[in-house]
């Protein structure tokens, strides 16, 4: 018997015999055991804040989004797929900061389902939030774009990061809320400015990063800007 190791809990489990493997498809190289199939808590869109996608019931906007709407001309509409709980924090740490890109496998199916309406619509440009040059060099892969590649989702890199590469988790809440001028629009994409955009990011925390991208794209002439994040 052969063994396969779960990419999340890293426990080994027996697989089919070599003889059986001759007549069956090989298991996916990013294997997840039965107990780790549903480690993330999904957010129901009809039970979420209309602004940031936070899981809640009984009101249209959460406290944070009420403040955004009070201070901004418009508020970004974000859809979040999973709750940003302890399992999500561990995933972010292992995937982004330890560089285990195999772990994107755990979010790919849900991401593909959430993107389906926008892919089918064909009027949206799917645009991942770009990493800083420092972060990309350190990790060796684009953490936001990687799962899009894995599910064969076409996307356009409209933005360039002007960030210094400091992790969001290392910034104070005030630093994150005051984030400005973090992105620039690629000149070669200027012909698309009358299109609609769906921004993709991993985590919505204060919303400053996404709102910064939103403001730039709206000010540049894009007709509509929404966002989709893995976690909130």
TrEMBL record:
Record's keyword terms, sorted: Glycosyltransferase, Transferase
InterPro entries: ComF/GntX_DNA_util-trans, PRTase-like, PRTase_dom
Superkingdom in the source lineage: Bacteria
Keyword Glycosyltransferase: yes
Pfam families: Pribosyltran
SUPFAM superfamilies registered for this protein in UniProt: PRTase-like
Positions of the Phosphoribosyltransferase domain: 146-231
The family this protein is said to belong to: Belongs to the ComF/GntX family.
The name this protein goes by in its record: Phosphoribosyltransferase family protein
